[in-house]
Predict the structure of J domain-containing protein.
Amino acid sequence: FFSIAEEKKKLGNEQYKAKNYQSALKFYSDAISLCPDSSTYYGNRAATYMMMSNYTNALNDARTAVRLDPNFEKAYVRIAKCCVAKGDIIGIEQAIKKIEELDPQSNAVEGEKQTLQQLRQLEQTIQNNYDSKFYRNVVYYLDAAIKLSPACYRYRLLKAECLAFLGRCDEAVDIAISVIKLDSTSADAIYVRGLCFYYTDNLDKGIKHFELALQLDPDHKKAKEMRTKSKTLKDMKEKGNVLFKSGRYREAQTIYTDALKIDELNKEINSKLLYNRALVNSKIGNTRDAIVDCTNVLDINAQYLKALLLRARCHNDIEKYEESVSDYEAALQLQKTPEIKKLLRDAKFALKKSKRKDYYKILGIPRNASDDEIKKAYRKKALVHHPDRHANSSLDERKEQELKFKEVGEAYAILSDPRKKVRYDNDQDIEDQEQPDFDPNQMFRHFFQFSGGPSGASFGFEF
């Protein structure tokens, strides 16, 4: 058998040199079948597996080779290289130590020694950033570690975990699934898969995956913590919704507030909790708090239509009409429905109305004032603001009083004319913004000429 095995090894070597690794693998495997105690055959097959990036099988073969021949230095070199690829720092250290024992002058693993130092530094930096919850930094340094150790599942899954924390669940789940395909019993991979469900508001599936990870590894601390957190968040969310639907708004507000403290990274669920709390705040009259909550929702998800519509309504309620119009315009961009178009028209109308002068306020009278009350109010205000009364005032003061005098005249011109007053009271003048055409001084003279007023041709005042 030995001669046949040697022939198989020779054929394997030829295929290896030609980079036909799959063929080389077959010949080396045939040789091992014929002579299973040959460390050389295992060493050669280990080298072939390495060229195929199958570091797990390569490591197994290299370890078998040194078990058969404890002085097989080249096999220890391959162990060191495989351990580098798999991110196994302890394995690298042990292999290097054995090589140095066999040959203190050996420089076969100088590169691996340097990589070992780099991995040590990277792991310390990664751990520090992870502990500080600087997950973007963790991902950055893990990418550097993965370049050095491309077959390290631990690095890849830690990166996936941090991507999930950062809300990049699509990337995270791809990594987790790729590892599960290679190792269906990886508790860490299943934990990360559960994390992705959790951060995309699928709490039930998240809980199932955390429980499965714990079946595979009962001491999996992260899976335990996330299972507890998921169940707590699910219960509180459901309880808050029940309280809201039953009209117990203040109790619901407390529950939603407490639920928001559970995990600030779960933006998907928190956006819904914030929206629900905004609804509660709008129900109990905390309109400004409702606006803040809606704004926080939209910071998380600018496409959250319900939050945009609620904030628009709340802005309208506190007479922030420009903000209301802006929100309805943004909502219409997201969904062009007749209902939103009408809401936008109404908001624009309210904005125009808010910019129209309040003639009743200018005259200081209620909206149901009689004709006599309107006249009395005009007489009083006109006398207070007439330019002659302020002839000795500063230039700024004279301008201010002239403006008020004109506004008083405008108010009286509209409210003393039955047709214009009806249009004004019914908001029919808003679209055309009809402005009275008059001379306030002429109106003043006309008013006092027929109603009786100060004597003197110049209508001067004596105070």
Summary: Residues 454-463 have pLDDT under 50 and may be disordered. The radius of gyration is 41 Å. The CA atoms of residues 294 and 307 lie 5 Å apart. Residues 302-355 form one domain.
